[in-house]
Amino acid sequence: MTPEILAEFDSWLQEARDHGAIHEPTAMCLSTCGSDGQPAGRIVLLKHHNERGFVFFSNHETSYKADDLATNPHAALCFYWMPLTKQIRIEGRVEKIADEEADAYFASRPRGSQIGAWASQQSRELKDRATFEEIILANEQKFAGRDVPRPPYWSGWRVVPHRIEFWKERDSRLHDRWEYTLDDGVWDRRLLYP
Length: 194
Ligand SMILES: Cc1cc2nc3c(=O)[nH]c(=O)nc-3n(C[C@H](O)[C@H](O)[C@H](O)COP(=O)(O)O)c2cc1C
Known about the structure:
The protein is elongated and about 55 Å long. A hairpin with a 4-residue loop joins strand 5 and strand 6. The protein is built from 5 helices and 9 strands, in the order αββββαββαααβββ. It is an alpha+beta fold. The protein has a single domain, classed as Electron Transport, Fmn-binding Protein, Chain A (Pnp Oxidase, Chain A), CATH 2.30.110. Strands 1, 2, 3, 4, 5, 6, 7, 8 and 9 form a 9-stranded antiparallel β-sheet that branches. The structure holds flavin mononucleotide (FMN). Flavin mononucleotide binds next to strand 2, strand 4 and helix 2.
């Protein structure tokens, strides 16, 4: 995206970070849709973004999103910051990030989260909580006294946008909306009716 669009996104995200009452300002709804045509949405955290796109991290092997993105590498992101009454929607193609980028982020995570990435077969059936706790303990013992490496199935995806929409609440539901769309390598801006 252009530096101007990125700056616009940054200023809204910064406002959300500065607000104080927004618990997870980087929380966004990630929507995917696999070959069965059934859309699915869930919250993930935005961990990195720049002119190339928007990066989140997850399990690339067992999760429902991994299944969906394997067959249809397109996704939508949606932020809503309630106290600001602002929404941003992003749509784009999804690509796996480079291993070095994933390694660097994984290394920065708290140790408990690193162990958790090894212990969780995200979205597979779990018999009971005690089973999970045993697996966590086994991984704590396995990695005791050394750095926890990134599991091969745990990494980031980047949403490379081709549409970004900004929405701001106004009185009487006469909201402000504008979208940027990428067409033949050129970003176009236009207003939309609310
Ligand atoms: C505030 C919040 C933040 C979350 N952040 C992430 C995240 O960054 N990555 C992730 O894989 N799941 C995250 N989750 C859990 C997901 O919503 C979801 O349960 C999980 O990714 C499995 O989804 P799936 O089976 O549809 O792929 C978060 C949930 C909440 C409520």
